[in-house]
Amino acid sequence: MKVLVVGGGGREHSMVWKLNQSPRVDTIYCAPGNAGIAGIAECIDIKVDDVDALLDFVKYNWIDLTVVGPEAPLTAGIVDAFVKEGRTIFGPNAAGARLEGSKIFAKDFMQKYGIPTAEYKSFSSYLHAEEYVRLKGAPLVVKADGLAAGKGVIVAATVEEALDALKLIMKDRAFGDAGNRVIVEQCLKGEEASFMILTDSKTVVPLATSQDHKQIYDGDKGPNTGGMGAYSPAPIVTDELRADIMQNIVDPIMKGLSRERIEYRGVIYVGIMVCDGKPYVLEFNVRFGDPEAQPILARLDCDLFDLLKATAEGRLKDVNVQWKDDASICVVLSAKGYPGSYEKGKVIQGLDAFTNDSNVVVFHAGTSLKKNSVVTSGGRVLGVTALGKDIRIARENVYKAIEKIHFDGMHFRRDIADKAIKRQ
Ligand code: AMP
Question: Strands 65-68, 2-7: parallel, antiparallel or unpaired by DSSP?
Fold first, then answer.
């Protein structure tokens, strides 16, 4: 079988790596891919949101399954375009992708179907939003409605910060049309967890739990990033909490999708804040989290190709999903300056050290090939991912592995999974 993976980050490298283990997969293409993906797949130079070019590629190369990594092509309707042409593609259609593409749609959906979430109001007028911010007082969270590459959410500790956020989004239009409307919502205090499900609208399969680390510095300090590391399983999600999430969040999501006549085939990522033991939804994503996919797929103990194809074809009930007992951790190595403007083109050393280590895999995110060297080309550069009998051993393995890697300005957090270890 031939597979096309759309995307070029750490999440897509982990997907390609896992798909490559399937005996049913002969050839993997990746658009656009990166230097690490190029070692196991053929990278093709097509942008992730160039739906017409991707469809042409799939037609002329007889691709059996297309797997979409990032959100932008999903919200742009890649699945609708492929399905219309009779192609098998993993991911939700544009109607389903609105759960991520419009935060107001997602919050209204949550309210309509009784899904616990922070109190909120949405605005298309700056003056009304400003009035509401002053009325409510800080802390508050201000969110651009549309896609903003993970930067459209501002947690404001003071009224001034909230007003600055409103100005940034609505007046300076820092995120363009994504800021035509905003949400102002109550700031929740608690611990976050990521809960992902796979669904074909008939069957729901919860994936292994995980926890991301958004801030750039240890101790959850500094500005938010795309994610600096993640681990799985997340002990904060106890059996009791998991049952609560399934009953009070996942069931109403599925009921809501059915009522709205949205046939959803793909991943639903539920970002959760656990406040006093109760789960509240912060956001939905309509694809695997990055970097959560890396530790989760490292623990997946069945054929990813079968799983994704069955989901895309509405046969998810036929697949038996298995997980390794091992814990896993992914630590992101980032470029100097990230999440602000960052350096590029730094040579990465030490990558050859891992070819025979079954416990460690180095997923590439922002890398490219220059002459014969792998160089940095993105803010998040690598996601070093290790398995271990338990989370402590996985942590030992991952930090030992990182010692072998170097590039100028390399930064990483040294406290990934500390919360899990403390909880034990
Ligand atoms: P989102 O993209 O909506 O998940 O927001 C990104 C990050 O902002 C989350 O991972 C949280 O750390 C933070 N956040 C979002 N909404 C809230 C909220 N209502 N209260 C506190 N923090 C929030």
Answer: parallel
